[in-house]
């Protein structure tokens, strides 16, 4: 158990399912006050009910990362309830598929507004409160797709995930003097509800492409994020942690 996160207030955007839910659960198990943010409050509350049974202090909030004012209100509400915001896990994201030749402006804008601009909105809304913390932590959920690899049908997704890392590096520079670190976790293929929807054949194909011959768990991302949020990780900023079971290592 990382004692330094105990009692800290952690916001997880897109925290009601998939990787976000895994991140929220991991922080809650380690004694943090965890705020699950999702567009649908009922979805957020359902997640909180499940996590709170075993994991302690978990709180549901409705928020839309594509709407700056919505995230401002989320941060204000969280600070009002807990008196601090110590960690932001900017995790909300979508990954619809669209071939490049058929992709519309609307397809592109939806992904970029959620994944890239959504990160900007969440971070900007939390900065005033992170400055007041003993130390602030921002952890962005990016991906190996875009920054390191590509995958057909996901050019807009890949662009958004690469954009997050450009944002991260400059944000880390701007916030370093405020004792706020900004880092990113880059998941490979993690078994989530969204991935399961792509079908068993896809899951088997992806598992075979990983040297460890298995898909990752949401908890694998949760513990990477947890470490980056600790006091002990205070000299790490502007960096990326790839969590992919060695997927990007083979030459062919």
From TrEMBL:
<dbReference type="Pfam" id="PF13561">
    <property type="entry name" value="adh_short_C2"/>
</dbReference>
<keyword id="KW-0560">Oxidoreductase</keyword>
<dbReference type="InterPro" id="IPR002347">
    <property type="entry name" value="SDR_fam"/>
</dbReference>
<dbReference type="GO" id="GO:0004316">
    <property type="term" value="F:3-oxoacyl-[acyl-carrier-protein] reductase (NADPH) activity"/>
</dbReference>
<dbReference type="InterPro" id="IPR036291">
    <property type="entry name" value="NAD(P)-bd_dom_sf"/>
</dbReference>
<dbReference type="InterPro" id="IPR050259">
    <property type="entry name" value="SDR"/>
</dbReference>
<comment type="similarity">
    <text>Belongs to the short-chain dehydrogenases/reductases (SDR) family.</text>
</comment>
<protein>
    <submittedName>
        <fullName>3-oxoacyl-ACP reductase FabG</fullName>
        <ecNumber>1.1.1.100</ecNumber>
    </submittedName>
</protein>
């Amino acid at each position: 158990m990382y004692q330094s996160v105990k009692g800290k207030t952690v916001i997880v955007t897109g925290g009601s399912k998939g990787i976000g839910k895994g991140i929220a659960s991991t922080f809650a198990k380690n004694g943090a006050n965890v705020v699950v943010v999702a567009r649908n409050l009922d979805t957020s509350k359902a997640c909180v009910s499940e996590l709170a049974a075993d994991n302690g202090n978990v709180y549901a909030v409705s928020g839309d990362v594509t709407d700056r004012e919505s995230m401002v209100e989320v941060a204000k509400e969280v600070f009002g309830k807990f008196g601090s915001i110590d960690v932001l896990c900017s995790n909300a994201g979508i990954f619809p598929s669209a071939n490049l030749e058929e992709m519309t402006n609307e397809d592109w804008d939806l992904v970029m507004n959620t994944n890239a601009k959504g990160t900007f909105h969440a971070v900007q809304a939390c900065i005033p409160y992170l400055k007041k913390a003993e130390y602030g932590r921002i952890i962005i959920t990016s991906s190996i797709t875009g920054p390191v690899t590509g995958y057909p049908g996901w050019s807009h997704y890949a662009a958004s995930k690469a954009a997050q890392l450009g944002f991260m590096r400059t944000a880390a520079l701007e916030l370093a003097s405020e004792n706020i670190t900004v880092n990113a976790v880059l998941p490979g293929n993690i078994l989530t509800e969204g991935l399961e929807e792509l079908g068993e054949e896809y899951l088997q194909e992806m598992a075979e492409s990983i040297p460890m011959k298995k898909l990752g768990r949401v908890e694998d991302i949760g513990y990477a994020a947890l470490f980056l949020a600790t006091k002990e990780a205070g000299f790490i900023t502007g960096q990326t942690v790839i969590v992919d079971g060695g997927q990007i290592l083979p030459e062919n």
